[in-house]
């Protein structure tokens, strides 16, 4: 059995908001709904990224709530781009920074972070091609997908990141259909398949873990992909005060495992020695899942357990000395 060292922050982070950097770069005044975990996640990610950051923001809730003229919540350079091309624009910005440094018009030692925020619709569906290109070309960009599991800004339409069985306006639950009819697209694994230096999942309910991962993404040279769970009380039908709890339950049940993959090496950054809670605990208080039958919940449980086991096996395998020496990690 290989001993995997887990960062302390993973365990501490639930209680440790006060340990986060004080500077606010995604500031107050935005118009996100009460309890919006995506807005909290952006705030935390910006604390990690710091002032020398250019943000590229695809169309979606986070762009809409933070930028109506003449107000803005952004204290860093920020560009709003179309739904489909955030990764392409970020690639251009990163290339331009390199050229300016080469031509001596920018101090070559100055570190400028390029950071994308895009929703699950903008990432799993319409922006996937641009993201794939950015990762394949090796741009030094951190791409954060905030996943609220639907097209929230336009009225809760299903995306390919909408979970199995969830009710949305385009996957309605009723007599004929039971909600989303296929399994959630596994974006972190698509990113891992590109062989990029850093891939991680994160959740604002674990703030220090999230901050550490965003920081790590900027320490490593090359593309990084962070898949951020973003509880959406409005679209999911839960009380705003439950947002943090819902994020914790997603991790505690294995519905949204917290892990990172650095140069191909997996590590669960939060693991549960006493085992996972039943997925029903996560599903039962959300309006979007209230129609689920016991059979469907059983099916979801089996899928979640299998995926968690797969992650544990990947962690075990990719930390084995023989694998690490062959893979050079
Ligand atoms: C090409 C194109 N198609 C459709 C839209 C309309 N539109 C704007 S935001 C949005 C939903 C975005 O969903 P997601 O990326 O998940 O972000 P969220 O709103 O959930 O934060 C849609 C469909 C658009 N702006 N451009
Ligand atoms: S609809 Fe959801 S993601 Fe959009 S601002 Fe409201 S809570 Fe946040
Ligand atoms: Mg969305």
Low-confidence segments: none
What's the number of extended β-strand segments?
A: 8
The hetero molecules present are: thiamine diphosphate, iron/sulfur cluster, magnesium ion
Percent of residues in helices:
25-40%
| CATH class descriptor | Alpha Beta
Average pLDDT metric: 95
What percentage of amino acids are in beta strands? 5-15%
Strand arrangement, largest sheet?
A: 2-1-3-4-6-5-7-8
CATH topology name: Rossmann fold
User: Main sheet?
Assistant: 8 strands, mixed
Counting structural domains, the number is 1
Question: Would you give an account of this structure?
Answer:
There is one protein chain. This protein is of the alpha/beta class and 329 residues long. The protein has a single domain (9-327), classed as 3-Layer(aba) Sandwich (Rossmann fold), CATH 3.40.50. It has helices at 9-12, 37-49, 61-66, 86-102, 120-125, 128-137, 187-193, 207-219, 233-236, 243-253, 279-283, 294-318, 321-327; strands spanning 53-58, 78-81, 113-119, 142-147, 198-202, 224-229, 259-262, 265-268. Strands 2-1-3-4-6-5-7-8 form an 8-stranded mixed β-sheet, sandwiched between helices. The longest helix is centred in the last third of the chain and has 25 residues, at 294-318. The protein starts with 8 loop residues before the first helix and ends with a helix. Thiamine diphosphate binds at residues 59-62, 83-84, 119-122, 148, 151-154, 159.
């Amino acid at each position: 059995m290989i001993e995997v060292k887990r960062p302390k922050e993973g365990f501490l982070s639930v209680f440790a908001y006060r340990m986060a950097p004080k500077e606010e770069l995604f500031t107050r005044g935005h118009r996100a709904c009460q309890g919006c975990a995506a807005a909290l996640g952006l705030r935390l990610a910006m604390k990690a990224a710091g002032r020398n950051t250019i943000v590229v923001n695809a169309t979606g809730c986070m762009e809409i709530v933070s930028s109506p003229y003449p107000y803005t919540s952004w204290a860093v350079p920020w560009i709003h781009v179309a739904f489909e091309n955030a990764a392409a624009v970020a690639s251009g910005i990163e290339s331009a920074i390199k050229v300016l440094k080469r031509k001596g018009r920018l101090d070559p030692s100055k570190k400028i972070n390029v950071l994308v925020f895009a929703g699950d619709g903008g990432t799993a569906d319409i922006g996937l091609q641009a993201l794939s290109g950015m990762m394949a070309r090796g741009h030094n960009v951190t791409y954060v997908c905030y996943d609220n599991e639907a097209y929230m800004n336009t009225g809760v339409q299903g995306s390919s990141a909408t979970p199995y069985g969830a009710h949305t306006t385009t996957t309605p639950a009723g007599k004929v259909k039971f909600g989303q009819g296929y399994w959630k697209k596994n974006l972190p694994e698509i990113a891992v398949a590109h062989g990029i230096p850093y891939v991680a999942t994160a959740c604002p309910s674990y703030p220090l873990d999230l901050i550490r991962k965003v920081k790590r993404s900027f320490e490593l040279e090359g593309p990084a992909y962070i898949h951020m769970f973003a509880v959406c009380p409005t679209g999911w039908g839960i009380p705003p005060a439950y947002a943090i709890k819902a994020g914790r339950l997603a991790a505690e049940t294995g519905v949204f495992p917290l892990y990172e993959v650095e140069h191909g090496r997996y590590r669960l950054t939060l693991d549960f020695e006493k085992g996972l809670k039943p997925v029903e605990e996560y599903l039962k208080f959300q309006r979007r899942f209230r129609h689920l039958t016991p059979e469907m919940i059983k099916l979801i449980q089996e899928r979640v357990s299998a995926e968690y086991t797969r992650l544990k096996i990947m962690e075990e395998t990719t930390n084995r000395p023989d694998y690490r020496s062959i893979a050079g990690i």
